[in-house]
Amino acid sequence: MSKGAPTLEDVARVAGVSRATVSRVVNGTRNVDPELQETVRNAIEQTGYTPNRVARSLVTRRTGTVALVISGAGGGSDVFTDPFFGRVTAGVVDFLRLRSVHPVLMLADSDHARTEVVEFLRQGSADGALLVSTHPADPLPARLLQAGVPSVLYARPGRPMPISYVDLDHRAGGRMAADHLVAAGRYNIATISGPLDVLASQDRHAGFRDAMARHGFPYVPTAEGGFTAESGASAMQRLLVECPDVDGVFAANDLMAQAAVEVLRAHGLRVPDDVAVVGFDDSAPALASRPQLTTVRQPVEDMAAKMADLLLASLEEPGQRPRSAIFEPELVVRASA
């Protein structure tokens, strides 16, 4: 090994690869085999090589960081306690860490915060944005687009625009829930929707109602929730008043479904004997519920990783057209229905 600070050549010699391969790993190039990346990283650790981040940024004009922006979630506490946001973060971090790219979490829950996000990115403090926007009227996607910031959204934008995104076939998920409840012999079925100004909620609700109509149920009692446990409990209370003979419930996320189960049990109703309950997401509350929830799985971690993949691809090949990736839901049958 050469005297002085370890070099790329030293790493290449220990790893048994070319200097160019080491450089590609250090610079976060996407198309490097993961096993080869691990070999190079082990050699970096063995040699004690420290990449010159300043020099690298001068060559690549990239910082090696991307912003994970949560917009419109209503504040930090909502983000850190909601299982959905935790799963998105896990999917992004696990994908980026293998590529030596670091996420910066930014909360954009006000107009001032959104302006700060745009300025942060416009100034080149991060290479691009992974945006989780919770409301279709959110102006941030359009502002990032206008600022020329490479961006990818989790969920399609509220209005058509040339920006990449990942999403789920939410209508198909709603249909799966309806088909399962009807196949289980339930005839007085109600639903707890998510907030109906959110596109995913609209699609889950529409898919569920369409499938119920195809099964001969033209009307489905609905109580709107807000994707929180509290709203799910309140919605279930309202449904019990409107349709006390309910024997099946589809809730548009697992937090609301878990809360619905607790309300039903408090009213002396057994799940699933008296009332079958189906949730959506296959998140931690589905397993924490008693009984555990039958639910429609949304592969959040995989979707978040794909979001990061699309962003890195756009950074490596600027000017390519926007891309979309639509994932398929899956019914996970457990004890609640």
From TrEMBL:
<protein>
    <submittedName>
        <fullName>Transcriptional regulator, LacI family</fullName>
    </submittedName>
</protein>
<dbReference type="InterPro" id="IPR000843">
    <property type="entry name" value="HTH_LacI"/>
</dbReference>
<dbReference type="InterPro" id="IPR010982">
    <property type="entry name" value="Lambda_DNA-bd_dom_sf"/>
</dbReference>
<dbReference type="Pfam" id="PF00356">
    <property type="entry name" value="LacI"/>
</dbReference>
<dbReference type="GO" id="GO:0003700">
    <property type="term" value="F:DNA-binding transcription factor activity"/>
</dbReference>
<feature type="domain" description="HTH cro/C1-type">
    <location>
        <begin position="7"/>
        <end position="36"/>
    </location>
</feature>
<feature type="domain" description="HTH lacI-type">
    <location>
        <begin position="6"/>
        <end position="60"/>
    </location>
</feature>
<keyword id="KW-0804">Transcription</keyword>
<dbReference type="InterPro" id="IPR001387">
    <property type="entry name" value="Cro/C1-type_HTH"/>
</dbReference>
<keyword id="KW-0238">DNA-binding</keyword>
<keyword id="KW-0805">Transcription regulation</keyword>
<dbReference type="Pfam" id="PF13377">
    <property type="entry name" value="Peripla_BP_3"/>
</dbReference>
<dbReference type="GO" id="GO:0000976">
    <property type="term" value="F:transcription cis-regulatory region binding"/>
</dbReference>
<dbReference type="InterPro" id="IPR046335">
    <property type="entry name" value="LacI/GalR-like_sensor"/>
</dbReference>
<dbReference type="InterPro" id="IPR028082">
    <property type="entry name" value="Peripla_BP_I"/>
</dbReference>
